Amino acid sequence: xxxxxxxxxxxxxxxxxxxxxxxxxxxxxxxxxxxxxxxxxxxxxxxxxxxxxxxxxxxxxxxxxxxxxxxxxxxxxxxxxxxxxxxxxxxxxxxxxxxxxxxxxxxxxxxxxxxxxxxxxxxxxxxxxxxxxxxxxxxxxxxxxxxxxxxxxxxxxxxxxxxxxxxxxxxxxxxxxxxxxxxxxxxxxxxxxxxxxxxxxxxxxxxxxxxxxxxxxxxxxxxxxxxxxxxxxxxxxxxxxxxxxxxxxxxxxxxxxxxxxxxxxxxxxxxxxxxxxxxxxxxxxxxxxxxxxxxxxxxxxxxxxxxxxxxxxxxxxxxxxxxxxxxxxxxxxxxxxxxxxxxxxxxxxxxxxxxxxxxxxxxxxxxxxxxxxxxxxxxxxxxxxxxxxxxxxxxxxxxxxxxxxxxxxxxxxxxxxxxxxxxx
Amino acid sequence: xxxxxxxxxxxxxxxxxxxxxxxxxxxxxxxxxxxxxxxxxxxxxxxxxxxxxxxxxxxxxxxxxxxxxxxxxxxxxxxxxxxxxxxxxxxxxxxxxxxxxxxxxxxxxxxxxxxxxxxxxxxxxxxxxxxxxxxxxxxxxxxxxxxxxxxxxxxxxxxxxxxxxxxxxxxxxxxxxxxxxxxxxxxxxxxxxxxxxxxxxxxxxxxxxxxxxxxxxxxxxxxxxxxxxxxxxxxxxxxxxxxxxxxxxxxxxxxxxxxxxxxxxxxxxxxxxxxxxxxxxxxxxxxxxxxxxxxxxxxxxxxxxxxxxxxxxxxxxxxxxxxxxxxxxxxxxxxxxxxxxxxxxxxxxxxxxxxxxxxxxxxxxxxxxxxxxxxxxxxxxxxxxxxxxxxxxxxxxxxxxxxxxxxxxxxxxxxxxxxxxxxx
Lengths: 424, 424
What we know:
2 copies of one chain form a homodimer.
Chain A: E1 2-12, E2 17-26, E3 29-34, E4 43-46, E5 50-54, E6 56-61, H1 77-90, H2 94-110, E7 113-120, H3 123-133, E8 136-143, H4 149-168, E9 174-180, H5 188-201, E10 205-209, H6 213-223, H7 227-233, E11 241-245, H8 251-260, E12 263-266, H9 268-273, H10 281-286, E13 290-293, H11 306-321, H12 329-335, H13 338-343, E14 359-363, H14 375-382, E15 388-393, E16 396-400, E17 403-404, H15 409-423
Parallel strand pairs in A: 1-4, 1-5, 6-7, 7-8, 8-9, 10-11, 11-12, 12-13
Antiparallel strand pairs in A: 1-2, 2-3, 5-14, 14-15, 15-16, 16-17
Helix pairs in contact in A: 2-3, 2-15, 4-5, 11-12, 11-14, 12-14
């Protein structure tokens, strides 16, 4: 299988250089980026007036939570969880979770996300959905033992079972990741065992850390240290750890994260909407920490639009630092592409020869993207997910000219409506 | 002329009640909102799976500045102005301004804005564009005299000339507004004369006030008081004043604004992007000040998308106040509709019998707007301008099923590209 995308404006390489060129995809790789490519291809796409961009990498979400979109806004975190989210999650069956995952992956394909890191329940079901949809998914079963040794065992079994299920799918696109929920919901025993298993099976780990001020207080009270110090002390941290949120970090925490090469998945919309706080982006970047971008779940965002998320990230840190030069367009664009790929050890998030063919074509024939003064700026500050016209993952076209090819859109929307009725 | 919109979910009345109903438009008014309307109509629109919403009112922008979109991001305000914006603005002819205005109104129609309050130069040209496009425009010529009495006279003459030109168009949709730029760029003499003229001709006034901390310092140094106190002392304030920004306001300022019934046009994206600061929304609302929403110009946003702006407003004030309950979806939705209409003394911004037929149809057949758990929340937190399918102003359809009927889109995009080349 080969695809030739002709006459686009290509956002090329790590430096985001804009070149007018064709892009040739052979198999699942980008084979060539050059002007006037003559090779024949199975599919030819005309990208005149369009931009060929790396696909976006959503480094923290809970894909099935789209079902809960808009059910509980403008509420304190604990009301949100206790009155609205947890009672519904308790009723989630495998089938209902799958209905939510379909809705999530459909939205991601539509808005140009090519890879995502997920944490939720029934992840075997989510894996099936990702396999069918054609996205690249890194899937973690969210483990919570609340210090109960029986639950520790059960959660670890659940994780290993999910790993085996996903491995059994034998897909290069669908990967298992260990997902202990957070230091305040997981015992030390669970966290230590996860570290062991991740080493043994050579898997990544993702975990929520330092999201809210109250979490910091709880961990300090229980352990006499910060969540990051705690994780450091038990030998949990490493280059394979992707930590979601990291809102409340002091200089010591940041130093620890940098030393271990931990990636932080930043979720500005969720942190703003739940009033969790503002992640110290500038300090993290200065310390050399790899920071990537995520949307969090659609119950606290309320969408999975990585283009919108880039704008939020850039704007939030400018006003927070009283400095319009921070979180510039290029920095934020890399957070949404390259930095996520780096965390996942993936040769993607960039358009260049040899990289995985995970890319999107963005339609610039719209008033809000003209004049074409600055393509990367327009994507970060003015575009949104609806401007994505074509989504390609692993050399396969998932959406062409805004038509999703791998999923039955109408059926997914219908099933999502029915699912939430059952959860009421 | 009559239009019947059938089977939509209507956001009805000031309380934003969701009703499944038809909407009948007769002439330029909403005649009836009810189930199963039987009256015949010249045009019938099927709105199944769609939402009928009041059109959005952008209460502060500089429509031609779309030309400068992305030309100068991530810069300190003075660099932005002195190195990039002012040199180009100095070269702006009537024709080039018009090219920018076309781009702006096209974007507004596409993203569901039905009314806007503008400030710029060559406003006679902008008025012609608005007349042709079919939008409702409140247009002010931005006056700056920098304390030079010769310029005071010239600027006032320019404003009066613009007023007479716009009055000469004899349109119910296009209105002149007095637009002294700001207390730091206008002399007291100019401001006092504007107040007189506004009273004499019964026109609204719009002005930038308290946008940046440095402005506060300059006014304090020059006059020994805050910009709001200064305007109060010279008798400038009143119900007819729409003040853009209001980022740096103390309790005394807020009390003054409430007492005079001044409207504040809030521009969260611009205030964040230029790192101006955070407007004290909660304090203004508690004091009873009418707060509406604007996008500011596309050089500091970088688009005119009021749906995106609503999300930014809601999220910014939640994290700024560390309280997820502030700036709830309904409050922010009213800021983008009703409150703007109130400031403009316009019977619009609401779908109900007798109101002006300024409304939009939003397509909810997209994964990011499902399940339809909460329509107003979805519009504020998950939708963006691209979800707007049909835009109706003054009982005329400007865009139907995403096709703009009043303007030549391709030509406008081309002209915008050529205009910016001439300004380089």
